[in-house]
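Review this chain:
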Amino acid sequence: MHGYEAAHQLGMKFHACLSVGDWDGIRSLLTDDVTWTLPGDNTVSGTAEGADAVVERARKIASYGLHFELLHILVSRENMALSLHNTATRGDVRLDEYLSTVCRLREGRIAEIETYLSDVAGMNAFFV
């Protein structure tokens, strides 16, 4: 299997685990020293450091009832990214954002995640 095929499969697994709340499954895809950086100024912004913190962030984001629509898995020579459309409603506040979650890989696992958002202000309003 080529590196890009393995990266694509890893992206599929990550999205599948996130969609059904398989936190142990997500943990198995991460290096112990993984980081996840999100923009904005809200309860899920900043950098989560370490696999347990990254899993907890994923759990917290999912707890808001998000629907994680997978648009594309994008691969480079050594890394991958998920192109997502996330939507959710909390009271009168609606989240409707497009994002790219860029994953740098090491030895077949996710070592670094950085998320790029289409609507940081909307994310700040939703994740209070």
User: Anything to note?
Assistant: The longest helix spans residues 3-20. The beta strands are 30-38, 46-49, 67-75, 80-90, 93-106, 109-117. Residues 3-126 form a domain with the Nuclear Transport Factor 2; Chain: A, fold (CATH 3.10.450.50).
